Amino acid sequence: MEDVVEKEAIDLTMIDEVCAEYKGRKGATIPVLQKVQEHYGYLSSDMIDRIGENLNISSHTLYGVLTFYAQFYTTPRGKYVIRVCRGTACHVKGSGRISEVVKEEFGISNGETTSDIKFTLEEVSCIGACGMAPVIMINDKTYGNLTPEQARSIFKEYAQKQD
Amino acid sequence: MVNVKIDGVDVQVEPNSTILEAAEKAGVHIPILCHDKVLKPFGACRVCLVEVKNNPKLMTACTTPVMDNMEITTKNDKLAKIRKTLIELLLINHPLDCPVCDKGGECTLQDLTYEFGVSQVRFDPKPNDTPVDHTNPFIERDIDRCVLCGRCVRICDEVVNIQAISFQNRGTDTIIGTSFNQPWNCEFCGQCMSVCPVGSLNNRVYLFKNRPWNLQKTESICGLCSCGCSILIDSEDNEVFRIKEDYDLGVNKGLLCVKGRFGFELINNVKREKNSKIKVGEEFKNISIEDAISTASKKLAEIKSKYGSDSIGVVVSSRLTNEEAFLARKLAKDVIGTPYIFSSETDDAMPEGTYADIENADDITVLNIDVTESNPVLGFFIRMTARKNEGGLRVFYPKMTALKRVASEFYTGKPSELLGLINDFADAVEGKSNRCSEAASKLLAANSPVLVFNPYSKADLAVVSRIKKAQPKVKLIPCKLKNNSQGIVDMGCATGADLVDGLGRDKIKALVVLGENIAVNPGYVNLVGVLSKLEFILSTDPYFTETSAISDLYIPVATFAEKSGTFTNFEGRVQTVNPAIDKGLISDFDLLVSLINSLGGKAPDSVDAAQELIRKEISNYSGVDFNGGVVEYPYAVKDVNARYEIVGSGSYELYRCSLRFHSGTFTTWSPDLTKVYKEATIEINPEDAADLNLKDGDLVTVKAGETMKKFYVEIEKYNPRGVVSIPMNYKGTEAILAKGEYQRVELIKHA
Amino acid sequence: MSANNDIIEVHICMGTAGVASGGYEVMDAFAAEFEKEGISAVLKERNCKVKATGCRGLCARDVLVDIHLPGMGPITYEHVTPEMVPSIVQEHIGAGQVVDKWAAKKDYYDFYKLQKRYVLKDCGKVDPEDIDDYISLGGYDAIKKVLKEMTPEQVIDEVKKSGLRGRGGGGFPTGMKWGFCRASKGDLKYLICNADEGDPGAFMDRSIIEGNPHVVIEGMLIAAYAIGCKEGYIYCRAEYPLAIKRVKKALRVAEERGFLGKNILGTDFEFHLHLKEGAGAFVCGEETALIASIEGERGMPRSRPPFPAVKGLWAKPTNVNNVETFANLPLIILDGADYYASMGTEKSKGTKIFALSGKVKSTGLVEVPMGITIRQLIFDVGGGIAKKRKFKAVQLGGPSGGCIPEHLLDTPIDYDSLIAAGAMMGSGGVVVMDETNCMVNVAHFFLTFTQRESCGKCIPCRIGTKTMLDILKRITTGEGREGDIETLQDLANDIKIASLCGLGQTAPNPVLTTIKYFRHEYEAHIKDKKCPARECSELIEFVVADDRCKKCGICFKVCPVGAITWEKGKVAYIDKSKCVKCRECIVNCPFNAID
């Protein structure tokens, strides 16, 4: 029930400000979605409606746009987003195994978030650090040249973080 | 012109034509799936790939413009192979449930499979299996059958301008749907369904009722509002199964609205009365139609001889054909000899602007009417033009309407403020400098401006006539209400005679009510008590209505789908109505012929003969083609002197709004339309609702002076604070709305 | 470069890989060390400058640090960690003694030997966040020259003469492309820099932007002047936060300095440049999809014609080039088309940057003259195959490219030869595969990528690639059927011909080339239900081959689930009931002893 209360409490006025900044400008859709997501961490149905109202765009169109791009999320994301690079170099160096380790540790597959909203697994296209393959990123921190067991111990470390 | 050779056929086409258009001209068939000529080229399905000489790549015929001396091959082994593969790929996921699919027989995928000879699929079938979506009351959505051609999304965007659905996700996960999979809520115009090439979007009113090859098509004109849309009535055994569009046909260019497309069950409704009824004491008794007609003529002759010819009044509904209205006037004026012909129409404003004027407009003003509700197809044209012009649409209305997305200027507000603004706008157009000067200067500078307005509001008419004087270039479009609102004016049934006055002076003893449900019309609402004192009321209607209930003799009559004649739409365009079915009922025309003849007159013996007479007697109809010709009118708007007035007192300002789902009480006989909108609701701003602790669906009493009436609440975020609205011409609203166009009311919440 | 002999410069590689390997920590360590007492006394009179530079290519050895001492050639240290910094500062900078054990060896310099660092010449030297550094190296001289001495037509002619072809993949002649857009009617034209580099295994555009953003801006200025564009966009992948940060800063500073905006360099040339962040869709690398994305729509490609040069962004004439193409332009202007055309082959001029990755010793970013062979690229520049394994194939051109087998290694790298071999230049990803890579699996991998990135608009790409993938999947899991190879080839050809955009038209390439060159591997999967490279888990028995096992016990150590029993001096045994088929044992066995 706490969840519900929290949801209702989200203040969406920030959206009006962002939209005001882009009002009348062509091609505002994606930058506005990016800014709103940056602020709230994801994009909810209410947020989309509010953006649509402000920019005078159908919320269905907006939803179509946001679901096209991998960068946008419609559910809250984990505190720690584990991005496993699935680029070619990482693939040939065994990044598939690292995703499996995440699954083993946290029970989440690509795109899923743990129920305590602590971890999200995201398999990403090349993050351009092929020299250090296989590579993962946890939030902004990059870990390279990983073996599955090294990855596991990194995950365990994060799992124990209390903050 | 450029020269193109297609499969060896030389053809000359316009320079910007596509290969597909050129092929059509050359008589060469190119298969298409995602393409639709009403939409912009998309090039997604690849079925129309053709070979262009000296081009290593295959080109899509639907998107590629022709070039001079282009040589095109549309059929060879390579193309056949690819087309076959494309269909094979689609059939991997497309369920092969053709035997139970409503689209069977008119499905493009089925046709292409057959055309390309795809007798087996090399790949393992993996039919989609998602539950069918029934959130839309009129359109069943079966995404399993969807081929993602995007026609529905594109027509909703490019033509309807509502964008109620969109492509979602990416790649194989792509589906067509709504934001966050919300219930599919839109204007329900069904344009998406009309262009769906497969059985993905289906007409729920027609679903599983018939097969297309059994249906007979009758071209006709919709009998619900004044747009004058061409329709195809699909029928079998005197039952209407569906209403279809033809994108090559009519002023509406194939577009239809929710009423026109989905409301047709009102024609088939089993509640339709089959028997004439006569009141005996307090009860009605069935009588034969012959007896009914002779009773009627006897009664009328009797009253005429007893009280004089001006003791009989004739009320004419705006739904009658021109020919019927003409005979009604003939009956009243020439046969009975009474001046009392009544209708709810006026001749204050006459048609001027046409659909073409909307399309060519560089500046559109929509004054104080929600045209998207009152005349939905006209609304589509306004939206398309505004979208194309990227602006040039100015709207005055208390709340944001569906024009919001394309309007460049939208003036909303409480009537007490908005009406002042409208006056200022008129002042500004007349040259006065004020807050509306910028908007006015745009209208004054425009080359082909159009003004769309509500011809039933005297105060609006006053503004319109001022604007027309100051900017004579502006083409006026009066949003007439019903299918023949204009025609009955033209046939002389809008005499300006006042029924209230006639009854009030106790002059009238008998009424002939042709199709009008006067008992619930706000214009006549105060008469109901008086009416029951009349000696004789004859009423006709396809249904036994509230008016029938207070009449002495009731005769059930045909609907527009069962009769011949013409309607004149808001453009002043006369169009032919053809009978698709026969329910074994007479039409008002037949009845009027009998009455005229039995009362000593001489009626024309057919609709054709009536039309001959109309041409003779109605001067501006004399040279008009009754199958699409436009009537010329001596004036567009009369000099009307009226001011906006807000009557009554209370904390809320009430205005009348229009209903997309209904056209008067007639459409309430459609079980499908009533499913979506059953009873009149009061629309209220969310904050006001919160103040009153009201939710959607709660009951609230509206108190207007001494009149109190309960309504269900509908929260409407666009209604301004302190403003409420109730639909006009809807059952149960007449007592309140009769008080005035704008009024102040109190709201009382129920426990 | 330390032009001033008194200046000691420490250059730290701060590309993404540098940062990820701890570049900032190393940088802090240097700063801290310089602050320390004693050392500061030694260095006091001399000006020490720690400079963050862009990628210099050899990412596998990050953090790379160059020490420039006056009167001494730069010395490079590899794999630098903060712990190494005190020694480097004290011994090398303080005492002039190179710390040999950490200094780069011959193989490091071999990496650069065959390279022609031309476009990348300043990457790794210039501070990407300092416009003055760029200017001091001759930056913005080209646009000055263009505005002062050349007409737009002359610029286009010069670019045509240089033979520059688009570096984004297709290899369309750049000058000709500009000519089309210039010829289009309209006052408002757009110039777009495509920095939506999404190919797995390619990161050259990222390195250029991160390492030298101003060169891209300057290249765009030249193009804008030549074509007549007033407005421009850099469309950069959002997954490149560092690149975005640096472009943002570069745009701001360039505008402050009068290189962007109105009246550029005092002339009436006007060019406004904006940054658009992508939102994560590979297909947006396709120019019409990119345009749709900038317009705020779903990035679905549009049919051509009309070409963007006629009707592009917001229906205005638009020219799109990629980052590397723009980075070539200042060089062409300053060095002249003749010099530029002297590099490379007859039809492919200049140099090309490649991202070398996979099973090659020296992974990283390399720039070589067009025309060197694939063999030279992999074995001379890249140092050959890692872990003493055997070369099997190289995927050129990313997921749109093709797999080249050993017998074609002497193919020269130019646009046309690569296409003839079944691959393509693409954006320049080079992924090297060794004998442990299964080619069916590789094809499956690439197709998984393109299929996932398909926008879904056209049928052949949306359903066709998925169908191919399903067939590949069943082959790699032992469910392959007789005829699958032919079906794949047939479908692949239809998809290539019928797809709407380049993504679909090239998606089948990895499958077609692997079938062409490694058909026997497909057949082994289908007929024998065996994966010769032992990569497809479903087809591996997971038994230790007695004859090859050297009893080292490595497999026992790496098994994550304890399914392997081993005692010193004995052949290992795999308990199949516990084995989860993770392949750790196979990957780590030095003797290929697990079947």
Please render the helix and strand layout as text:
The complex is a heterotrimer of chains A (163), B (751) and C (595).
Chain A: H1 2-9, H2 13-22, H3 29-40, H4 45-55, H5 59-68, E1 80-85, H6 88-92, H7 95-106, E2 119-124, E3 136-138, E4 141-143, H8 148-160
Parallel strand pairs in A: 1-2
Antiparallel strand pairs in A: 1-3, 3-4
Helix pairs in contact in A: 2-3, 2-4, 3-4, 7-8
Chain B: E1 2-6, E2 9-13, H1 19-26, E3 49-52, E4 59-60, E5 70-73, H2 77-93, H3 108-116, E6 139-141, H4 151-159, E7 166-168, E8 175-177, H5 191-195, E9 201-203, E10 216-221, E11 230-236, E12 239-244, H6 258-262, H7 265-268, E13 276-280, E14 283-287, H8 289-307, E15 312-316, H9 322-336, E16 341-342, H10 355-360, E17 363-367, H11 371-374, H12 376-389, E18 393-396, E19 409-411, H13 415-429, H14 437-445, E20 449-453, H15 458-470, E21 475-478, H16 485-490, H17 499-504, E22 510-514, H18 528-531, E23 536-541, H19 546-549, E24 553-556, E25 565-568, E26 574-577, H20 588-598, H21 607-617, E27 646-648, E28 652-657, H22 671-676, E29 681-684, H23 686-691, E30 699-704, E31 707-715, E32 723-727, H24 734-737, E33 742-749
Parallel strand pairs in B: 1-5, 15-16, 15-22, 17-18, 17-20, 18-19, 20-21, 22-23, 23-24, 27-33, 28-32, 29-31
Antiparallel strand pairs in B: 1-2, 3-4, 3-5, 6-9, 7-8, 10-11, 11-12, 13-14, 13-24, 25-26, 28-33, 29-32, 30-31, 30-33
Helix pairs in contact in B: 2-3, 8-20, 9-20, 13-14, 13-15
Chain C: E1 7-13, H1 16-20, H2 23-35, H3 39-43, E2 47-53, E3 65-68, E4 75-77, H4 85-94, H5 106-113, H6 131-136, H7 141-149, H8 152-162, H9 174-183, E5 190-195, H10 204-211, H11 213-227, E6 231-236, H12 241-256, E7 272-277, H13 287-294, E8 318-322, H14 323-335, H15 337-341, E9 351-358, E10 364-369, H16 374-381, E11 391-396, E12 402-405, H17 415-420, E13 429-434, H18 439-453, H19 459-476, H20 484-498, H21 502-506, H22 509-528, H23 554-558, E14 564-565, E15 573-574, H24 584-588
Parallel strand pairs in C: 1-2, 5-6, 5-8, 6-7, 9-13
Antiparallel strand pairs in C: 1-3, 3-4, 9-10, 11-12, 11-13, 14-15
